[in-house]
Amino acid sequence: MLKFLLKKNIRVYAAVISMLMTLSFCKYAATGTEKRDETSRPSVTYSNPYFKGTMEERFSQVEKISKLFGVECDHCHNEELTVFTENGEISKKMMAASVALGVDCDYCHIDGKRYTEKENQARNMFELSETMAVECNFCHMGKEKLTSRGLQAKTAFLTRDWATKGSKQCLECHIEKKQFALNFYGWQVLNAMKGLKGM
Predict the structure, then answer these.
(1) Which domain of life is it from (predicted)?
(2) Distance of CA 15 to the CA centre of its chain
């Protein structure tokens, strides 16, 4: 009988302890859902090559961008800064381009709806990077600096009238989405150029 009572008491104690643990966990979880003070900054940080410097300097850069585009943080982020919106995903690509070119957003953007004279060139470049499945830093490494592949591309742009004909012109010589691999015609053009240069 004593063993039976001990077993029964142990079960009761275990049930009480598990209920207390559940309640304390619920209380702990609920404290995270309270509305955040509007003046406080989120503690989450991300590795982003566009933003440089201390936390204060980075926050200043974010404020500059939001002011330029006339948007709030929730335009690109959820409240906890753990998920990017569709606009945030676009912004990440734009920031990667900015880093590759060594420029700020206002190099191409006047505001959220207006652009500088660089707009057409930027649109052509984004189409090209999508067509060829590469990032901007495949060719660019600063405002006026190009990678070796970027220098080759620049030569092709000049000889193939890319500025007016755009990315589709590139596919005459290149295989689509193959990191600029050449097709048969492209190899012929390259070999002819090497012959002209005495290579």
Answers:
(1) Bacteria
(2) 49
